[in-house]
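Notebook, p. 212. Picked up where the previous page left off. The plan for this session was modest: take the two constructs that came back from the sequencing core last week, fold each one, and keep the raw output in the notebook itself so nobody has to go hunting through shared drives later. Recording the first one now, exactly as returned: residue sequence, then the structure token string.
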Amino acid sequence: MTFADKTILVVGASGVLGGQIAANLAAQGASVLGTATSNESAARLPESVALRLLLDLQSAESIGVLADYLKATEKLDGIVLAAGRVGFGGMDAVSAEQAAQLMQVNFLGQADLVSRLLPAMQTGSFIAAITGVVAERTFPGMAAYCASKTALSVWLSASAPEFRRAGVRVLEARPGHAETGLATRPLFGTAPAMPQGMTAAHVAGRIIEGISGQATVLASTDF
């Protein structure tokens, strides 16, 4: 698959990894629609993004407004789900409200958006979602985060046949720790000491290779 003249939505394009993916796709000729949570974070969207959009994954209204707008105005060749938050703490330290917040951002909101946008997707299009290595193995002190990302992974796998019938390919990417600064901005808790991670440029490049190469899963060992 080539990206020239393709219209691709990058959810979380204001983040380090999402921004790298958006910029790479634009450099290859795609018309990139990039989302940010707020006007403040929208300032971090790459200049090469063709259309800047606001999306708060914690707001059903925001998800609905964006989906309705895109269905009325765009035919999408791809969606990249690069948004996400992290939280740290043992099960006795994380409240139900905190866990629910992670689940909403990392799974429920993204699944809701994709489901609503399916009518706007072209035959032969793709959905590429970043779940991470936590979809393969768990880590202590990150139970709520692992649960939210694993939920997205299982949902993608279970929904893949439905997407295929609609002419949409699903790619799940499971990179390990990358130096995106995500762990320094947790929703709650404090990150443990972590080894040096991969660069965002490396992870973004492998994901784009996976999309163009028609992959359906990029395991942690593929990065």
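Okay, moving on. Second construct, recorded in the same format:
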Amino acid sequence: MRHPDVVPEAGLPESVTIYEVGPRDGLQNEKSFVPTDAKIEFVRRLIDAGLTTIEVTSFVSPKWVPQLADAAEVLAGLDLSGPVRMPVLVPNERGLDRALEAGVTWIAIFGSATEGLARANLNQTLDGQFAMFEPVVRRARDLGLDVRAYVSMCFGDPWQGDVPVEQVVRVGKRLFDLGASQLSIGDTIGVGTPGHVRALIAAFVEAGIGVESLAVHFHDTYGQALANAYAALQAGVRTFDASAGGLGGCPFAPGATGNLATEDLVWMLEGLGIRTGVRLEALVETSVWMAGVLGRPSESRVLRALTAQRSA
């Protein structure tokens, strides 16, 4: 299988962390229910490919996310005591209770930078979401769990339109103040561009938030996800959310093509000489397998190119 020529670039890190979101963010938007055994196999294949942080599921109510109604069963089929970190998304205290019952040691909460998504996705006001998150984060930290916070709609919002940088920073700081140890900055509808990415990261740093505690989460709706990831890399970010095969998408963004594909990100990083620990061949095989489970082709350009070469 072909690999990129390695041409390192001055000022970039030797290694980064890929935070794989395919099993959770990728599968939650599927129209049909993916069998539990397939979800477990998906995670195991991702582990074999070298991913060390995999968000495996969500304890959101099955009423709202029926595709992940089997969260407890998926976790029961995985080894949570191993070296691979397997966070789960929790929306509230009931979700935290279920995560604790399953033996989870790392949770994520999902906040919004805008009023529109807070109401549509959380049934809360922009300020009200913090009251919902506070007991979840407090209890989790008291019990020794790590807590990641997502902040979505950071670059644009289908209800509000443009989202001021200072508004995103204000929301992000409040999530840190609650006790989150990492903040994932999300371009939920995929409208961000590299200059906007650099400006937002710089604003967080200027507000006293260390860039080492920031992660980025890009959607590829407008074809900007990889360019935005490179801009974030240049700005000092070292944790990148990605989804195997480009699985996922945003229900609020018509035509959304999903998350940044892990294969595309690994190809770029490998070409820059940056270690990820991911074996590209195994990752491609995993995404090809999952595409077969779903009955449709992958969105990853790297995967399509490599599989085409193999079959030529």
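Notes on construct two before I forget. The chain has one domain: 17-311.
Flagging for discussion at group meeting.
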